[in-house]
Amino acid sequence: MKSESLKAGTGIEGLDDILVGGFRRGRVYLLEGSPGTGKTTIAAQFLLEGAKHGEPGLYITLSETEEELRETAESHGWTFGSPNAIFELVPPESLLDDQQQQSLLYSSDLELGETTKRIFEAIEGKSPKRVVLDSLSEIRLLAQSSLRYRRQVLALKHYFSRNDATVLMLDDLTTENLDKTVHSVAHGVIRLEETAPDYGAERRRLRVIKYRGQRFRGGHHDMVIETGGVRVFPRLVSGEHRTEFKRETISSNSPALDKLLGGGIERGSSTLVLGPAGTGKSLVTLTFAVQAVERGEKAALFIFDEELGLLFERARGLGIDLQALQDGGNLLIEQVDAAEMSPGEFSQRVRSCVESLGARTVVIDSLNGYQQAMPEEKQLVLHMHELLQFLNRQGANTFLTVAQHGLVGDMQAPVDVTYLADTVVLLRYFEAAGRVRRAISIIKKRTSAHEDTIREYRIGSDGITLGEPLTNFQGVLRGVPEWIGENTLLNDGLA
């Protein structure tokens, strides 16, 4: 028997990746989380995936009506039909009638026994291979004590095991005391969580707490609920991805910029372009993206800060027709809303562009926008470390921009990722001869030697024009340089 047949896939690609194939057949699993975290949706996808392979499924519901479940399924475009079935388990009418209540026995004793009996009858009648029990909170309330609850769950587990069913038990964690009884009984436990940031859409994530006798991908994994079901984005582990490629030097379309960089950018490296707003950070990265397309490669731009229509218009004024490049199919441009997208989803999109679409140049503009998707700076650095390592190992060239606070003088970046990048390009404003000018320098390059000069540059209809090194100024990087002799500056139309 092939190892794949030992696993019951969930129908959710990302979750199956985390579980290394899915759930081991014939075992009981716990899916827990507060209301609204996606338990019902995942459970439904689990049954529908079984139906695709001819495995009969049964959804036993104690908390929702059959009508509510079918409405939920219809909202995703699903239909519960053969070989799946819904069994709505409600208390017998006699137990709801005040005149039939027992005086010597607690009604909960009768309800628990009757509930268990009806669950067994439902299993016997349909012999399902996949079962969902929703939810354990109702059984816990009927049991009234931790001991009775544990005995009841154990009885259900042994019964399901004898019937060779793969069972997903749902727990909405609505009881006052968070009983961990099922954690020790279940073969595996998955916890779903939801957080509400101060601004933007709610964020959902999951974590595999245990999976007995089976390795799995640990940590938190972002997820979303959308029309069509749940999508899970496995945490990126760069060490699991490595591709053989030729390390070569990639040039821009500016000989002067290539000279400043010591010949260009090495394949499979990351470049950080740092500077205040308006200094041309996006243009520098676009220069390399356009050059990649002209070489016949694919490039991907992820734009956080600028509206695409404005970006296209601005680039056109600089001699770059982004629309034509995009229509040609080799330039992929995506607007990213940091308030609506989790870091895990963003990493997955970047990964798809490289692995599925073959992008060899990736531009992230900017990290300021990316930071807004992160609750803490420390997490941003960890996410960026894994993402950059992944891209480097895939042989992709990554270009990141960071807008520093302020315009001249002492400036600070909102997050320091300079140590992560292989090359750091620094852009600055400075005042000279009664004009505001721009200067560029390379302050770090791991892969090769580079110029240690500071050059003035100008942005025009033909792109970036670089001048000679500013040898007779000092203090340019502070924004208020001091003239110490004759110097050649860029004049209008002259380099």
UniProtKB/TrEMBL annotation:
PROSITE patterns: KAIC. InterPro entries: AAA+_ATPase, Circadian_clock_KaiC-rel, KaiC, KaiC-like_dom, KaiC_dom, P-loop_NTPase. PANTHER family: CIRCADIAN CLOCK OSCILLATOR PROTEIN KAIC 1, PTHR42926. It is an enzyme of class 2 (transferase). GO terms for molecular function: ATP binding; hydrolase activity; protein serine/threonine kinase activity. Pfam families: ATPase. Its EC number is 2.7.11.1. This is non-specific serine/threonine protein kinase. Keywords: Hydrolase, Kinase, Phosphoprotein, Repeat, Transferase. SMART domains: AAA. It comes from Sphingomonas cremea. Residues 6-246, 248-480 form the KaiC domain.
